[in-house]
Amino acid sequence: MNRILVASRNPDKLRELRDILGAEGYEPVSLLELDLAGTLEIAETGLSFSENAVLKATAIAQKFGELGLGEDSGLSVDALGGAPGIFSARYHALDAVTLRGVYPGYPGGRPLAAADVPADSLNNVRLLAELEGLSDRTARYTCAVALVTPTAEVLLAAVGKIEGRIGDRPVGDGGFGYDPLFIPEGSELTFAQHAPEAKHAVSHRGRALKRLLDFLKEERP
Ligand code: IMP
């Protein structure tokens, strides 16, 4: 197996990366295994998914001296001006001013906090609350991946997207994050009701990683 260093500690994302890359003979090795002391902190200061993917890939490649893969992803909701977007992971905790800094069309709403409630659940509660009564539920997931050398050369930057809409209530227990609310185009089921392979076949991550795999097979067989 060819190992690829992945600049993430998100177990849900890593599970999907392992599913998709593992099936093609690549073994993602993450910061959970590489950086046991948790010392590598990567500031996600980019203003786009792609910028953040490059930042992550560069940081891990420089630190460990091998090709690095960065992945940045999130959900963009049209009625929210494109938010939560690059803030998807911590949407629940952000005020409207911060969100408007990157998404000027963000309508408003308050952050949510509750002890012992996972961030993903709070994110979904806030998303439903902010969309209450709105008929425009269109949204898309985006996944940016970047492959960077230890000398900070960007070998590949690719993006995958899937269009869809936000349901009225969470349904299903598969996937992660916003999946119980996200209904991909052409389906009546949320991503949380999809089997993993069915999600990967059409998802933003599946599509971005397909481009990565094509590149690896052609350029680094
Ligand atoms: P990142 O780790 O900064 O890239 O944040 C990714 C966040 O976007 C996740 O924590 C989820 O909230 C959301 N997200 C990205 N991809 C997915 C997906 O496939 N399903 C559900 N949520 C996703």
TrEMBL record:
User: Does the record carry Acetylation as a key word?
Assistant: no
The protein's annotated catalytic reaction(s) are: ITP + H2O = IMP + diphosphate + H(+); dITP + H2O = dIMP + diphosphate + H(+); XTP + H2O = XMP + diphosphate + H(+)
Q: Which InterPro entries match?
A: dITP/XTP_pyrophosphatase (IPR020922), ITPase-like_fam (IPR029001), RdgB/HAM1 (IPR002637)
Q: Where is the active site?
A: 72
According to its UniProt record, the EC number is 3.6.1.66
* Residues binding substrate: 8-13, 73, 176-179, 199, 204-205
Q: Gene3D superfamilies annotated for this entry?
A: 3.90.950.10
**Listed GO MF terms:** dITP diphosphatase activity; ITP diphosphatase activity; metal ion binding; nucleotide binding; ribonucleoside triphosphate phosphatase activity; XTP diphosphatase activity
Write down the CDD domains for this protein, in alphabetical order.
HAM1
Q: Which Pfam families match?
A: Ham1p_like
Fetch the SUPFAM superfamilies from UniProt.
ITPase-like (SSF52972)
Q: What note does UniProt attach to the cofactor annotation?
A: Binds 1 Mg(2+) ion per subunit.
**Purpose:** Pyrophosphatase that catalyzes the hydrolysis of nucleoside triphosphates to their monophosphate derivatives, with a high preference for the non-canonical purine nucleotides XTP (xanthosine triphosphate), dITP (deoxyinosine triphosphate) and ITP. Seems to function as a house-cleaning enzyme that removes non-canonical purine nucleotides from the nucleotide pool, thus preventing their incorporation into DNA/RNA and avoiding chromosomal lesions.
Q: What is this protein called?
A: dITP/XTP pyrophosphatase
